[in-house]
């Protein structure tokens, strides 16, 4: 195994195409808060959610996003005023972010308990990624850095026969930012090159602001949840832009 290089990979949008599952979980959870919403999520809402997925940082936000879509907000309107719209919903519902995180996780737990196979099927890995990660595990040390709760990452990796020990999954449970995790990995692995693959442009730009992370090689995952504008802006930044086939060839 080559220990001179380690990989830190975001999960949703880099490893897993979880947009449909996130939309459905968000809808299910929203239905428990707002009883005017029908139990079954309309397909058009799932399609619209995929369009706004790039601005969602953490899964619980899907609850608010699906509520906004149900209320008739357009994709364009949500993009233009996302922060204010979700703050308004939080105030109207008298609910906190921590409440939403708990509700989102519990809603997933119920779905998994009721039909694990269906839940896993709604979380497909991107084409070729399963074999890539199985190969990566034989050649390099690698980590998952995600805003997803760790138990869900473990379920999906296990379902795809991908082995990764618990200490190599840094999820929402740890209350660490991705910047903090990368700093920790540099401490744990001195004299190594760390590659960090991420599909959210703001996350990568934030990493660039930290001088102590200057040695981290940043990969912008173009196959993930980002917009045409993100891709244009990314060209001007000090990181590598990769299509999925480039990542698979690493």
From TrEMBL:
SUPFAM superfamilies in alphabetical order: HAD-like
GO molecular function term, any single one: phosphoglycolate phosphatase activity
Signal peptide start-end: none
Cellular component GO terms held in the UniProt record: cytosol
Entries under InterPro entries matching the protein: HAD-like_hydrolase_sf (IPR050155), HAD-like_sf (IPR036412), HAD_sf (IPR023214), PGP-like_dom2 (IPR023198)
BP GO annotations: DNA repair
Origin superkingdom: Bacteria
Name by which UniProt lists this protein: Haloacid dehalogenase domain protein hydrolase
The organism of origin for this protein: Crenothrix polyspora
């Amino acid at each position: 195994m080559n220990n001179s290089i380690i990989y830190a990979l975001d999960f949703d949008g880099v490893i897993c195409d979880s947009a449909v599952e996130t939309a459905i979980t968000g809808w299910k959870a929203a239905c428990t808060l707002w009883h005017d919403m029908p139990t079954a999520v309309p397909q058009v809402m799932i399609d619209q959610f995929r369009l706004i997925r790039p601005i969602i940082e953490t899964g619980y936000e899907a609850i608010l996003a699906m509520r906004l879509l149900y209320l008739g907000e357009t994709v364009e309107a949500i993009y233009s005023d996302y922060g204010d719209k979700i703050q308004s919903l939080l105030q109207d519902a008298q609910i906190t972010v921590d409440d939403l995180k708990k509700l989102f996780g519990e809603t997933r737990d119920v779905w998994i308990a009721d039909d694990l196979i269906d839940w896993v099927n709604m979380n497909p890995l991107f084409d070729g990624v399963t074999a890539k990660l199985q190969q990566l595990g034989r050649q390099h040390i690698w980590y998952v850095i995600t805003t997803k709760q760790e138990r869900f990452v473990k379920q999906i990796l296990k379902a795809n026969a991908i082995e990764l020990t618990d200490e190599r999954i840094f999820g929402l449970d740890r209350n660490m930012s991705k910047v903090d995790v990368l700093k920790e990995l540099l401490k744990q692995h001195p004299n190594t090159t760390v590659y960090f693959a991420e599909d959210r442009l703001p996350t990568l730009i934030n990493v660039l602001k930290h001088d102590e992370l200057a040695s981290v090689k940043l990969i912008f995952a173009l196959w993930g949840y980002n917009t045409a504008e993100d891709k244009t802006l990314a060209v001007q930044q000090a990181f590598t832009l990769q299509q999925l086939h480039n990542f698979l060839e690493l």
